[in-house]
Here is the input.
Amino acid sequence: MTNFLVKRFIKNFDKTEDIKIREKYGMLSSAVGVVCNIFLFALKYIMGTISNSISVISDAFNNLSDCASCIVTLFGYKLAAKPADKDHPFGHGRMEYLTSLSIAVVIIVVGLELLKDSVLKIMHPEQVNFSIIVLISLVISVAVKLWMSLFNTKLGNRINSTVMLATAKDSKSDVLATVAVIIALIASLFTDLPVDGAMGVIVSAFVLKSGYDIVRDTVDELLGKPADQQIIDNINNLIKENVKIIGIHDMLIHNYGPGNMIGSCHVEVRSDEDFTQIHDIVDGIERRIHKELNILMTIHMDPIEVDNEQVNHCKDKVRTIIKSLDERLHIHDFRLVTGESHTNVIFDLVVPYDCQYTDEQLKSFIDNGLEAEDTDYYTVITFDREF
Here is the structure.
């Protein structure tokens, strides 16, 4: 069904990096969500009224909030598809993240209201009228929500959309919530205890948890979490395909919304290479990364000595010292500058955020390790973090 709808309503559906195609995916997801959730709201509200069940009615309004979320999402995709302008030179892609945040706020507000009503129902219980028709309607609701979760997961993975994946997660929570309502409805046949209100509280908890998860994931994107490791690996593989590139470091990836990334890195090349030729090679790599990964990449060249025995010996010594401290430590931009009284050992040391040693301790360990060398070395270290 998912593939049928995509092929039926989205022309050139395979061009998922195109912002206009992403907009069409978003409109399809939102339209399907609106139709399904309006149907479920009407069905559950009628059945909840018939059965006098607060948990069923709560579940109905949960679906109504999902419908509102779909409408918000629809506008979010329209805004995110706006082209770059002088005030927003990197486009409007991050509007998807703000849309996810708006969805989460709506979900949390509805969850709090449902929680209040459910607690009141526990304090002042009312008789729930069991009906097989109501039970069947809830089972239908579970089936619809399972399909919606699968539908949005497929679309979200296809275009790398946090909004759709958040919607899919919300649908999964709805399934659990409706199962709780079914339990309450069946329990009404066997007990006068306020099971309906208790299950209403559980439904509210699912709703609030769903909202919290979306807030957490979206805030991570807005604050600037590290790029996906698969993206980093793809960039590294494309760069390393050229034999002229010896190493890569200082890679930065900035996310301006799905499908809109800007990056930079340094590549190490032999210092005796023809730099006119190397410049052309690097330009070609930048163009290829943009074409294949849709990432606007800027690459800086760092010349390094590879045939200098003293440089290589000192570099190996430093590597041995740091690996004995923490296997994750590594260096780049290594060079020696010889003076009259001493030789400067200049390099960048990449340190994990959770390294147990301070920068001062690391420098002290390296200095002590180099004291046994014949040359009077003085370390000049730039401490880096991996982004």
Summary: The radius of gyration is 29 Å. The domain at 2-223 is CATH 1.20.1510.10 (Alpha-lytic protease prodomain-like). The first helix runs from residue 2 to 9.
